[in-house]
């Protein structure tokens, strides 16, 4: 009887596995941090939303987003290792206000969030992280950031200590990318 049950379960499992669908795929690994394709697409949508641009999901745009997320994973590791504080919720709410105003008020803002496929909580989390990164850069490397804090891989060698640190972190960290999964 036990053998019949085992065969039945194995057969059912085989049917379920055969019908399984890949929901998300890993596109990069930074140390032990995984970056999923959905993370890349969220970053593309968030960037377009904040810039009031169109959502571009072509290979180049997705690779640029993946590289930003790789840099951010490196920064996150350093922030966690150094026990830096995350931005306070009150600062995040202050950062949301001008974004909302730029869309013409609460109703238009909510409509834009829906059009871009993001939520107000997604935006708050994104802005909290961006404020945290700016605070980290100012505390660790001094005031002033030459260039964009999240795209160091695109910069030529520079005297900026933050960019130099990020370039070094990229070279010294195990980073695996699978850009062919960005489709």
Give a structural overview.
The protein has 183 residues and is mostly helical. It is built from seven helices and three strands, in the order H-E-E-H-H-H-H-H-H-E. It has helices at residues 2-19, 37-51, 59-81, 89-102, 106-116, 120-141, 161-172; strands spanning 26-30, 33-36, 175-177. Strands 2-1-3 form a three-stranded antiparallel sheet. It is globular. The termini are far apart.
Largest sheet strand order? 2-1-3
The beta-strand count equals 3
- What global shape is seen? globular
**N-to-C SSE string, H for helix and E for strand:** HEEHHHHHHE
Main sheet: strands, sense, barrel: 3 strands, antiparallel
State the low-pLDDT regions, or none: 146-157
What is the helix tally?
7
Provide the helix percentage: 55-70%
- Secondary structure class reads mainly alpha
Percent of residues in β-strands:
5-15%
Instruction: Give Rg in angstroms.
Output: 21 Å
Mean pLDDT: 86
What is the end-to-end distance? Answer: 47 Å
């Amino acid at each position: 009887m036990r053998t019949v049950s085992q065969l039945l379960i194995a057969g059912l499992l085989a049917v379920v596995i055969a019908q399984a669908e890949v929901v998300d795929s890993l596109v990069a690994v930074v140390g032990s941090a995984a970056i999923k394709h959905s993370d890349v697409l969220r970053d593309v949508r968030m960037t377009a939303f904040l810039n009031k641009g169109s959502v571009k999901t072509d290979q180049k745009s997705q690779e640029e987003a993946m590289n930003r997320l790789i840099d951010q994973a490196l920064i996150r590791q350093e922030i966690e290792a150094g026990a830096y504080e995350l931005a306070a919720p009150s600062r995040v709410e202050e950062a949301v206000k001008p974004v909302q105003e730029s869309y013409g008020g609460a109703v238009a803002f909510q409509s834009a969030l829906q059009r871009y496929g993001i939520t107000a909580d997604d935006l708050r989390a994104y802005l909290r992280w961006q404020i945290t990164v700016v605070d980290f850069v100012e505390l660790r490397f001094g005031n002033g950031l030459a260039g964009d804090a999240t795209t160091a891989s695109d910069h030529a060698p520079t005297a900026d200590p933050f960019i130099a640190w990020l370039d070094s972190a990229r070279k010294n960290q195990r980073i695996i990318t699978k850009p062919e999964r960005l489709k």
